[in-house]
Amino acid sequence: MNTTTIYKGFTLIDGTGSEPIKDSYMMVKDDKIIKIGKTSNLTNNSNYKTVDLSGKFVMPGLINSHVHITMEPVGNPFAVLSNESDAMTSLRGAANLKKTLNSGTTFFRDLGGPDGIDIDLRNAVNKKIIEGPEFLASGKVICMTGGHGWMSGREADGPVETRKAAREQLKAGADVIKVMATGGVMTEGVEPGSPQFTTEEMTTAIEEAHKAGKKTATHAQGTTGIKNAINAGIDSIEHGFYLDDEIFHMMKEKGVFLVATLVAPYFIVKNGKDGGIPEYAVKKATNTMEAHKESFKKAYKAGVKIAMGTDSGTPYNFHGSAPHEVKLMIEYGMKPMDALVASTKGSAECLGIDSNYGTIEKDKFADFLVLDKNPIENIETLFNIDSIYKLGKKV
Ligand SMILES: [Zn+2]
């Protein structure tokens, strides 16, 4: 059976940041891109299926670096999680996977869920039992006793226990290790600005991940906790509410990514207490939002590496909110092209999957979006995607 398809006539935005190329074609064989060029240079390929995309724009599928696929984005997601069976959480995750893919996210990273359910969901996608974007799973987040995320996390204290906790997640099949460097918004009684794990506690967990060839991410909002995580060898700072010049310098020197998740506090503040969000969370998000925005702006100006992530699953932060995040990144000062690169190639680098995903280039997987308008001039077009292709197949 012939499984080669030619897509032709479109303007290509390849995800590398280079200028859009008009009248492009792309040849896809099975799940991979095998050829790219100008439509005018196409020789007679009448034996292949041809799809005419004249007037359309093609870009890589969005890659979301921070998702909680098992969490329901209602006012109090943890209240839902703690009152349902693992079977129900799994079914919820399967439904959320579909929503994520149908909104143009073709790959993502899950950064924490209960009981290793994210790992099973990942396996179910890879075995094609359920439909969804491919993704990397962290298993349980690792936090200090009573620390941020303890409700579904693995509590550990001291460098020996954090090392063991990381080994446990790796044994369960985790692709990435997530540690909690500071308090956060959604856990009662902790403060976003307060450090939690010490540098020593994070160092051992990170060491185990790196030994296994895996990346590490940290929930880190306050300045001291962020510095502790960078000193411990972390690969990405998630949220980053309170950044300073020293942090920018450290991140650039060590190539650490910032995944700001701008939509997370945005949706909390927008929906507030009336939306059923716990008062403590609304207060914390309101108090930190302005600093968060300023930190993001300054990090971009300073030249810190930025990847796109939403924190989907937090209150009103629905599955498939990536276009909202891209829009906010632009509103907060990023050039549209830079925001698109951060949401494709940048995220792929942050996740360590850039040799196979994140750009439209020869030999990469055929994960791409067909758009009616040029997203660089009109980002709203991401909210109404013409068609989505995952591993060469139309979704
Ligand atoms: Zn998160």
Topology readout:
Elements: E1 4-12, E2 21-29, E3 32-38, E4 49-52, E5 57-60, E6 62-67, H1 77-81, H2 86-102, E7 105-110, H3 117-126, E8 134-137, E9 142-143, E10 154-155, H4 158-172, E11 176-180, H5 199-211, E12 215-220, H6 223-232, E13 236-239, H7 245-254, E14 257-259, H8 263-271, H9 279-302, E15 306-307, H10 322-331, H11 336-351, E16 368-371, E17 387-390, E18 393-394
Parallel strand pairs: 1-4, 1-5, 6-7, 7-8, 9-10, 11-12, 12-13, 13-14, 14-15
Antiparallel strand pairs: 1-2, 2-3, 5-16, 16-17, 17-18
The chain binds zinc ion.
What does this 3D model show about the protein?
This protein has 395 residues and is of the alpha/beta class. It has two domains: 4-60 and 359-394, Urease, subunit C, domain 1, CATH 2.30.40; 62-351, Alpha-Beta Barrel (TIM Barrel), CATH 3.20.20.140. The chain has helices at residues 77-81, 86-102, 117-126, 158-172, 199-211, 223-232, 245-254, 263-271, 279-302, 322-331, 336-351, and strands spanning 4-12, 21-29, 32-38, 49-52, 57-60, 62-67, 105-110, 134-137, 142-143, 154-155, 176-180, 215-220, 236-239, 257-259, 306-307, 368-371, 387-390, 393-394. Strands 1, 2, 3, 4, 5, 16, 17 and 18 form an eight-stranded mixed sheet that branches. Helix 6 packs parallel to helix 7 (245-254), helix 8 (263-271) runs antiparallel to helix 9 (279-302) and helix 10 (322-331) packs across helix 11. The radius of gyration is 21 Å and the shape is globular. The model has no long low-confidence stretch (mean pLDDT 96). The protein binds zinc ion (ZN). The site of zinc ion has 4 residues, from loops. Zinc ion binds at residues 66, 68, 111, 311.
